[in-house]
Design brief:
This protein is an alpha+beta fold.
Protein backbone atom coordinates (compact mmCIF):
# COMPACT_ATOMS: atom_id res chain seq x y z
CA UNK A 1 0.00 0.00 0.00
CA UNK A 2 0.98 3.64 -0.19
CA UNK A 3 3.03 5.29 2.57
CA UNK A 4 0.13 7.32 3.98
CA UNK A 5 -1.91 4.16 4.54
CA UNK A 6 0.95 2.47 6.39
CA UNK A 7 1.48 5.52 8.58
CA UNK A 8 -2.15 5.95 9.63
CA UNK A 9 -2.67 2.20 10.04
CA UNK A 10 0.47 1.92 12.16
CA UNK A 11 -0.53 4.88 14.30
CA UNK A 12 -4.06 3.58 14.89
CA UNK A 13 -2.86 0.09 15.76
CA UNK A 14 -0.17 1.60 17.99
CA UNK A 15 -2.86 3.44 19.92
CA UNK A 16 -4.90 0.26 20.23
CA UNK A 17 -1.96 -1.78 21.52
CA UNK A 18 -0.15 0.66 23.78
CA UNK A 19 -1.97 3.98 23.95
CA UNK A 20 -2.77 3.64 27.66
CA UNK A 21 0.86 3.09 28.60
CA UNK A 22 2.71 5.19 26.05
CA UNK A 23 0.23 7.95 25.33
CA UNK A 24 0.59 9.50 21.90
CA UNK A 25 4.11 8.08 21.57
CA UNK A 26 2.34 4.81 20.75
CA UNK A 27 1.03 6.41 17.56
CA UNK A 28 4.47 7.65 16.55
CA UNK A 29 6.19 4.34 17.25
CA UNK A 30 3.39 2.48 15.49
CA UNK A 31 3.66 4.64 12.38
CA UNK A 32 7.44 4.13 12.26
CA UNK A 33 7.26 0.37 12.83
CA UNK A 34 4.50 -0.16 10.26
CA UNK A 35 6.51 1.79 7.68
CA UNK A 36 9.83 0.07 8.41
CA UNK A 37 9.65 -2.71 5.77
CA UNK A 38 9.67 -0.02 3.06
CA UNK A 39 13.22 0.86 4.09
CA UNK A 40 14.19 -1.18 1.03
CA UNK A 41 13.69 1.98 -1.06
CA UNK A 42 17.27 2.84 -0.08
CA UNK A 43 18.47 0.09 -2.41
CA UNK A 44 17.33 2.15 -5.40
CA UNK A 45 20.33 4.45 -4.87
CA UNK A 46 22.79 1.77 -6.01
CA UNK A 47 20.69 -0.82 -7.86
CA UNK A 48 19.71 -0.72 -11.49
CA UNK A 49 16.01 -0.22 -12.24
CA UNK A 50 15.19 -3.85 -13.02
CA UNK A 51 17.06 -5.16 -9.98
CA UNK A 52 15.42 -2.55 -7.76
CA UNK A 53 11.96 -3.51 -9.03
CA UNK A 54 12.67 -7.09 -8.05
CA UNK A 55 14.28 -6.20 -4.71
CA UNK A 56 11.39 -4.01 -3.54
CA UNK A 57 9.02 -5.89 -1.25
CA UNK A 58 11.60 -8.63 -1.03
CA UNK A 59 13.63 -9.53 2.05
CA UNK A 60 12.33 -6.60 4.14
CA UNK A 61 8.79 -7.85 3.53
CA UNK A 62 9.55 -11.41 4.60
CA UNK A 63 8.66 -13.38 7.70
CA UNK A 64 12.40 -13.72 8.33
CA UNK A 65 12.78 -9.93 8.51
CA UNK A 66 9.88 -9.81 10.95
CA UNK A 67 11.37 -12.54 13.13
CA UNK A 68 14.73 -10.75 13.27
CA UNK A 69 13.50 -7.17 13.67
CA UNK A 70 10.77 -7.77 16.26
CA UNK A 71 13.15 -8.61 19.14
CA UNK A 72 15.65 -5.98 17.96
CA UNK A 73 13.05 -3.21 17.98
CA UNK A 74 11.62 -4.49 21.27
CA UNK A 75 15.04 -4.33 22.91
CA UNK A 76 15.70 -0.82 21.61
CA UNK A 77 12.30 0.45 22.75
CA UNK A 78 12.67 -1.14 26.20
CA UNK A 79 15.94 0.75 26.68
CA UNK A 80 14.49 4.02 25.41
CA UNK A 81 11.36 3.84 27.56
CA UNK A 82 12.29 1.87 30.69
CA UNK A 83 9.50 3.46 32.79
CA UNK A 84 6.73 3.11 30.24
CA UNK A 85 5.08 0.16 31.95
CA UNK A 86 5.60 -1.92 28.80
CA UNK A 87 7.04 -5.37 29.47
CA UNK A 88 9.40 -7.09 27.04
CA UNK A 89 6.45 -9.23 25.93
CA UNK A 90 4.35 -6.10 25.32
CA UNK A 91 7.06 -4.69 23.07
CA UNK A 92 7.37 -7.95 21.16
CA UNK A 93 3.61 -7.99 20.51
CA UNK A 94 3.63 -4.30 19.57
CA UNK A 95 6.35 -4.55 16.94
CA UNK A 96 5.40 -8.02 15.77
CA UNK A 97 1.85 -6.94 15.00
CA UNK A 98 2.94 -3.73 13.27
CA UNK A 99 5.47 -5.45 11.01
CA UNK A 100 3.08 -8.28 10.18
CA UNK A 101 0.26 -5.92 9.24
CA UNK A 102 2.54 -4.14 6.76
CA UNK A 103 3.54 -7.25 4.84
CA UNK A 104 0.06 -8.75 5.13
CA UNK A 105 -1.67 -5.69 3.69
CA UNK A 106 0.89 -5.26 0.89
CA UNK A 107 0.05 -8.75 -0.34
CA UNK A 108 -3.43 -7.52 -1.31
CA UNK A 109 -1.91 -5.46 -4.17
CA UNK A 110 -0.68 -6.56 -7.58
CA UNK A 111 3.03 -5.94 -6.94
CA UNK A 112 3.74 -9.11 -5.01
CA UNK A 113 5.29 -9.49 -1.56
CA UNK A 114 8.24 -11.73 -0.70
CA UNK A 115 6.92 -13.38 2.45
CA UNK A 116 9.27 -16.35 2.08
CA UNK A 117 12.52 -14.64 1.05
CA UNK A 118 15.33 -15.63 0.87
CA UNK A 119 14.33 -19.30 0.88
CA UNK A 120 11.64 -19.09 -1.81
CA UNK A 121 11.33 -16.27 -4.35
CA UNK A 122 7.57 -16.62 -4.84
CA UNK A 123 5.76 -13.30 -4.43
CA UNK A 124 2.36 -13.33 -2.73
CA UNK A 125 -0.26 -11.14 -4.46
CA UNK A 126 -3.99 -11.41 -3.81
CA UNK A 127 -4.97 -8.64 -6.29
CA UNK A 128 -7.76 -7.28 -4.09
CA UNK A 129 -6.80 -3.63 -3.50
CA UNK A 130 -5.24 -1.00 -5.73
CA UNK A 131 -1.96 0.23 -4.21
CA UNK A 132 -3.68 3.47 -3.16
CA UNK A 133 -7.36 3.07 -2.37
CA UNK A 134 -8.87 6.15 -0.68
CA UNK A 135 -11.96 4.19 0.35
CA UNK A 136 -9.75 1.89 2.44
CA UNK A 137 -7.56 4.63 3.86
CA UNK A 138 -10.24 7.20 4.72
CA UNK A 139 -11.36 5.28 7.83
CA UNK A 140 -7.83 5.14 9.19
CA UNK A 141 -7.13 8.74 8.23
CA UNK A 142 -10.18 9.95 10.15
CA UNK A 143 -9.14 7.87 13.15
CA UNK A 144 -5.58 9.20 12.94
CA UNK A 145 -6.57 12.87 13.02
CA UNK A 146 -9.13 12.31 15.75
CA UNK A 147 -6.52 10.59 17.92
CA UNK A 148 -4.08 13.44 17.35
CA UNK A 149 -6.61 16.00 18.55
CA UNK A 150 -8.32 14.16 21.40
CA UNK A 151 -6.73 14.49 24.80
CA UNK A 152 -5.26 11.48 26.55
CA UNK A 153 -7.79 9.70 28.74
CA UNK A 154 -10.75 10.70 26.56
CA UNK A 155 -13.24 7.86 26.15
CA UNK A 156 -13.71 8.93 22.54
CA UNK A 157 -10.18 7.73 21.68
CA UNK A 158 -11.26 4.10 21.91
CA UNK A 159 -14.28 4.74 19.70
CA UNK A 160 -12.11 6.35 17.02
CA UNK A 161 -9.72 3.41 17.10
CA UNK A 162 -12.69 1.17 16.36
CA UNK A 163 -13.82 3.48 13.54
CA UNK A 164 -10.45 3.19 11.83
CA UNK A 165 -9.82 -0.52 12.29
CA UNK A 166 -13.36 -1.86 11.83
CA UNK A 167 -14.16 0.47 8.94
CA UNK A 168 -11.03 -0.48 6.99
CA UNK A 169 -11.52 -4.19 7.71
CA UNK A 170 -15.13 -4.11 6.57
CA UNK A 171 -14.11 -2.37 3.37
CA UNK A 172 -11.40 -4.97 2.76
CA UNK A 173 -14.00 -7.71 3.20
CA UNK A 174 -16.27 -5.90 0.74
CA UNK A 175 -13.40 -5.78 -1.78
CA UNK A 176 -12.86 -9.53 -1.44
CA UNK A 177 -16.52 -10.17 -2.25
CA UNK A 178 -16.21 -7.83 -5.26
CA UNK A 179 -13.28 -9.87 -6.57
CA UNK A 180 -15.18 -13.13 -6.14
CA UNK A 181 -18.12 -11.73 -8.11
CA UNK A 182 -15.93 -10.26 -10.86
CA UNK A 183 -14.02 -13.52 -11.29
CA UNK A 184 -17.25 -15.49 -11.54
CA UNK A 185 -18.72 -13.18 -14.18
CA UNK A 186 -15.55 -12.90 -16.25
CA UNK A 187 -14.98 -16.65 -16.32
CA UNK A 188 -18.54 -17.13 -17.56
CA UNK A 189 -17.87 -14.58 -20.30
CA UNK A 190 -14.66 -16.37 -21.29
CA UNK A 191 -16.54 -19.65 -21.54
CA UNK A 192 -19.41 -18.06 -23.50
CA UNK A 193 -16.94 -16.61 -26.02
CA UNK A 194 -15.10 -19.91 -26.38
CA UNK A 195 -11.86 -18.57 -24.96
CA UNK A 196 -9.70 -21.26 -23.39
CA UNK A 197 -7.06 -20.18 -20.91
CA UNK A 198 -4.60 -21.46 -18.36
CA UNK A 199 -3.80 -18.78 -15.83
CA UNK A 200 -6.08 -15.89 -14.96
CA UNK A 201 -5.89 -12.77 -12.81
CA UNK A 202 -8.10 -9.82 -11.97
CA UNK A 203 -6.97 -6.63 -10.27
CA UNK A 204 -8.72 -3.32 -9.50
CA UNK A 205 -8.13 -0.20 -11.58
CA UNK A 206 -6.78 3.00 -9.96
CA UNK A 207 -8.31 4.39 -6.78
CA UNK A 208 -11.43 2.19 -6.67
CA UNK A 209 -12.71 -1.36 -6.30
CA UNK A 210 -15.58 -1.41 -8.79
CA UNK A 211 -13.81 -1.44 -12.16
CA UNK A 212 -11.47 -4.39 -12.62
CA UNK A 213 -8.78 -5.21 -15.16
CA UNK A 214 -8.63 -8.90 -16.12
CA UNK A 215 -6.04 -11.07 -17.88
CA UNK A 216 -6.50 -14.62 -19.18
CA UNK A 217 -3.42 -16.40 -20.54
CA UNK A 218 -3.48 -18.92 -23.39
CA UNK A 219 -0.63 -20.72 -25.12
CA UNK A 220 0.37 -17.79 -27.32
CA UNK A 221 -0.53 -14.69 -25.36
CA UNK A 222 -3.15 -12.97 -23.27
CA UNK A 223 -6.78 -11.91 -23.42
CA UNK A 224 -7.23 -8.64 -21.52
CA UNK A 225 -10.36 -6.69 -20.65
CA UNK A 226 -12.28 -4.61 -18.12
CA UNK A 227 -15.27 -5.50 -16.03
CA UNK A 228 -17.28 -3.21 -13.77
CA UNK A 229 -19.38 -4.41 -10.88
CA UNK A 230 -22.23 -2.57 -12.62
CA UNK A 231 -21.76 -3.97 -16.13
CA UNK A 232 -24.69 -5.76 -17.75
CA UNK A 233 -23.01 -6.65 -21.06
CA UNK A 234 -20.40 -9.34 -21.64
CA UNK A 235 -16.75 -8.50 -21.05
CA UNK A 236 -14.94 -7.45 -24.21
CA UNK A 237 -11.45 -8.93 -24.59
CA UNK A 238 -8.50 -8.02 -26.78
CA UNK A 239 -5.80 -10.58 -27.51
CA UNK A 240 -2.11 -9.74 -27.21
CA UNK A 241 0.69 -12.05 -28.42
CA UNK A 242 3.48 -12.73 -25.98
CA UNK A 243 6.15 -12.45 -28.73
CA UNK A 244 8.56 -14.38 -26.57
CA UNK A 245 10.98 -15.13 -29.43
CA UNK A 246 11.78 -11.43 -29.69
CA UNK A 247 13.35 -11.74 -26.27
CA UNK A 248 15.95 -14.31 -27.39
CA UNK A 249 18.79 -11.79 -28.07
CA UNK A 250 18.45 -10.53 -24.51
CA UNK A 251 18.49 -13.85 -22.70
CA UNK A 252 21.12 -13.91 -19.99
CA UNK A 253 21.11 -10.13 -19.46
CA UNK A 254 20.73 -9.47 -15.76
CA UNK A 255 17.98 -6.86 -16.16
CA UNK A 256 15.92 -9.21 -18.33
CA UNK A 257 16.29 -12.05 -15.85
CA UNK A 258 15.06 -9.79 -13.04
CA UNK A 259 12.09 -8.68 -15.14
CA UNK A 260 11.15 -12.25 -16.05
CA UNK A 261 11.25 -13.29 -12.41
CA UNK A 262 9.33 -10.21 -11.29
CA UNK A 263 6.54 -10.47 -13.89
CA UNK A 264 5.68 -14.07 -12.93
CA UNK A 265 5.15 -14.82 -16.61
CA UNK A 266 2.57 -12.08 -17.23
CA UNK A 267 4.53 -10.21 -19.89
CA UNK A 268 4.55 -9.34 -23.58
CA UNK A 269 7.29 -8.01 -25.86
CA UNK A 270 6.50 -5.15 -28.24
CA UNK A 271 8.41 -3.17 -30.84
CA UNK A 272 8.20 0.58 -30.25
CA UNK A 273 10.10 2.37 -32.97
CA UNK A 274 13.76 1.46 -32.59
CA UNK A 275 13.50 -0.43 -29.31
CA UNK A 276 11.89 -3.51 -27.84
CA UNK A 277 9.69 -3.01 -24.81
CA UNK A 278 9.01 -5.44 -21.99
CA UNK A 279 5.44 -5.04 -20.65
CA UNK A 280 4.37 -6.39 -17.27
CA UNK A 281 0.62 -6.90 -17.68
CA UNK A 282 -0.25 -7.13 -13.99
CA UNK A 283 -0.29 -3.35 -13.48
CA UNK A 284 -2.83 -2.67 -16.19
CA UNK A 285 -2.94 -0.24 -19.07
CA UNK A 286 -2.79 3.55 -19.27
CA UNK A 287 -6.52 4.41 -19.31
CA UNK A 288 -7.19 1.10 -21.05
CA UNK A 289 -10.90 1.24 -20.20
CA UNK A 290 -11.19 4.16 -22.66
CA UNK A 291 -8.40 3.38 -25.16
CA UNK A 292 -8.56 -0.02 -26.90
CA UNK A 293 -4.91 0.31 -27.94
CA UNK A 294 -3.58 1.52 -24.62
CA UNK A 295 0.02 0.94 -23.63
CA UNK A 296 0.90 -0.72 -20.37
CA UNK A 297 1.72 1.19 -17.21
CA UNK A 298 4.78 -1.01 -16.63
CA UNK A 299 6.97 -0.87 -19.74
CA UNK A 300 10.71 -1.31 -19.79
CA UNK A 301 12.93 -0.24 -22.71
CA UNK A 302 15.22 -3.20 -23.26
CA UNK A 303 17.71 -1.39 -25.50
CA UNK A 304 17.81 1.80 -23.39
CA UNK A 305 17.95 0.61 -19.78
CA UNK A 306 19.12 4.00 -18.48
CA UNK A 307 15.86 5.62 -19.62
CA UNK A 308 13.52 3.50 -17.55
CA UNK A 309 13.36 5.57 -14.36
CA UNK A 310 10.37 4.78 -12.13
CA UNK A 311 9.25 1.97 -14.36
CA UNK A 312 6.35 0.61 -12.29
CA UNK A 313 4.39 3.86 -12.12
CA UNK A 314 5.40 5.32 -15.49
CA UNK A 315 2.28 6.64 -17.19
CA UNK A 316 -0.02 5.58 -14.36
CA UNK A 317 -1.87 8.92 -14.47
CA UNK A 318 -0.70 10.00 -17.93
CA UNK A 319 -3.35 12.01 -19.77
CA UNK A 320 -5.71 12.29 -16.81
CA UNK A 321 -7.83 15.43 -16.74
CA UNK A 322 -11.43 16.37 -16.02
CA UNK A 323 -12.71 14.80 -19.20
CA UNK A 324 -10.87 11.51 -18.76
CA UNK A 325 -11.95 11.43 -15.13
CA UNK A 326 -15.59 11.74 -16.21
CA UNK A 327 -15.06 8.91 -18.71
CA UNK A 328 -13.50 6.83 -15.95
CA UNK A 329 -16.45 7.40 -13.60
CA UNK A 330 -18.92 6.56 -16.38
CA UNK A 331 -17.02 3.31 -17.08
CA UNK A 332 -17.11 2.42 -13.39
CA UNK A 333 -20.86 2.93 -13.46
CA UNK A 334 -21.16 0.43 -16.31
CA UNK A 335 -21.46 2.87 -19.23
Amino acid sequence: MDSITHIVLGATVGEALAGRKLGKKAMLLGAIANSLPDIDFIASFWMGTAQDVWAHRGITHSFLFQLVMTPVLAAIAARMYPRSGMSRKDWWVFFGVELFLHIFLDAFNAYGTGWFEPFWHYRVAFHVLFVADPFYTVWLLASFFALLVLRLGSKARKRWVWVGLVGSCLYLGYCITNKIQIDSRVKKDLAAQGISYGRYLSTPTPLNNWLWYVVAEDSGGFHTGYRSMFDHQETHFRWLPRNIKKLDPYRGHSDVEYLLRFSQGYFTIEQWGDTLVFNDLRFGEIRGWADPKARFVFHYFLEYPDENGVVVQRGRMDGWNRRTLRVFVRRIRGN
